[in-house]
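Try this one yourself first.
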């Protein structure tokens, strides 16, 4: 079978792109022919207007589809960079189109799906998006023109996607529920299919190598990830409980300077270490050494790949109880859930593992068992083939 994977960018910059390449490797290992198509990088204004509909990408897609002649066109991200133009190109040649949702963008044009009261949005795409000062990257009424353009763009994309996509995949139950409700997608056209991970090369965590005071954050350093909440929780442990904890932060992003300033203002320079981006060859040892991986998101996070990685390395997870995270993290089974933004409860869970390294080991083993049974590549491949066929 020939599969054409389409995404906003072919640059490996985030979880969506990481999944696209993992999917390509999986399909090719099963004997399929696969190509990935997208722009090389994310482009800024004035190309924003091309995100409504990009004629250049449309004609490139036509040429590629004609020459490659795929059996299935599998679309991933396309609203932020290339527009749904490849879907129309696929339909011109009567190709079947599958689309995977990786975030809440088509449900919420402001992307976080957090209403102005700080709680998950119950309304989704509507005229409320135009006047509600919802939580997002650019808050405030001065950004109304910008959000109006995004609202119009997402509205157009929603109509094209609903009309021309044959099957939909959502990688979390919450994403499936909200997208299905918002786009009025019938049950038979959308399926919940979580991501997968390859367990073949994983190394089991040895309790003797776990550092009894170390916690880990891995991911993008941006506002919606709630890293400031984690830093403030560490501050509670250091100043109130007088603990010598250590937080390793791996990743980069536009919030790095602000987070380092917060670290300095709270006097935590010797307790928090920023390592920037690391290759997987160096990253894995920090998983194996840590008591837990922390996912403190304040947005509607979908299905963070760091949770899959943590489980594959037998590491427990302490995470916000929001979005699709509860699909992956079960309280007292493979980690702990706390309400988004609650630094005190987060600090309590950090303290719980700090005092009990064996609990960290046991929770991590449960997480590994979960991912081995529920999120392995063979289960994913079997379900995906059913959709493709």
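Now uncover the answer:
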């Amino acid at each position: 079978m020939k599969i054409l994977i389409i995404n906003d960018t072919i640059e490996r910059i985030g979880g969506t792109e990481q999944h696209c390449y993992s999917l390509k490797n999986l399909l090719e290992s099963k004997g399929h022919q696969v190509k990935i198509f997208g722009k090389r990088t994310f482009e800024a204004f004035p190309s924003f207007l091309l995100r409504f509909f990009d004629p250049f990408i449309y004609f490139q897609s036509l040429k590629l589809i004609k020459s490659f002649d795929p059996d299935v066109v599998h679309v991933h991200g396309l609203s932020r960079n290339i527009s749904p133009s490849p879907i129309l190109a696929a339909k011109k040649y009567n190709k079947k189109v599958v689309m995977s949702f990786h975030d809440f963008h088509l449900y919420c044009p402001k992307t976080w799906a957090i209403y102005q009261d700080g709680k998950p949005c119950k309304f989704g795409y509507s005229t409320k998006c135009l006047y509600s000062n919802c939580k997002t990257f650019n808050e405030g009424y001065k950004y109304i023109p910008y959000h109006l353009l995004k609202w119009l763009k997402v509205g157009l994309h929603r109509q094209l996607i609903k009309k021309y996509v044959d099957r939909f995949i959502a990688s979390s139950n919450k994403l499936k529920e909200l997208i299905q409700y918002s786009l009025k997608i019938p049950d038979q056209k959308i399926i919940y299919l979580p991501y997968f991970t390859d367990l073949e090369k994983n190394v089991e965590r040895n309790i003797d190598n776990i550092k009894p005071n170390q916690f880990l954050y891995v991911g993008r350093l941006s506002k919606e990830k709630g890293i400031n909440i984690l830093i403030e929780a560490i501050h509670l442990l250091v100043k109130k409980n007088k603990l010598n904890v250590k937080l390793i932060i791996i990743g980069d992003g536009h919030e790095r300077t602000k987070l380092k300033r917060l670290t300095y203002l709270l006097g935590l320079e010797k307790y928090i270490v920023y390592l920037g981006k690391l290759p997987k060859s160096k990253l894995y040892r920090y998983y194996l050494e840590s008591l837990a991986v922390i996912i403190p998101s304040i947005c509607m996070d979908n299905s963070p790949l760091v949770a899959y990685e943590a489980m594959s390395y037998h590491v427990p997870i302490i995470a916000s109880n929001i979005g699709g995270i509860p699909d992956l993290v079960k309280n007292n089974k493979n980690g702990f859930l706390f309400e988004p933004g609650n630094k005190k409860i987060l600090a309590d869970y950090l303290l719980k593992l700090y005092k009990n390294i064996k609990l960290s080991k046991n929770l991590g083993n449960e997480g590994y068992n979960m991912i081995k049974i529920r999120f392995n590549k063979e289960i994913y491949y079997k379900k995906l083939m059913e959709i493709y066929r």
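Discussion: The chain has a mean pLDDT of 94. Residues 2-198+376-388 form a domain with the Rossmann fold fold (CATH 3.40.50.2000).
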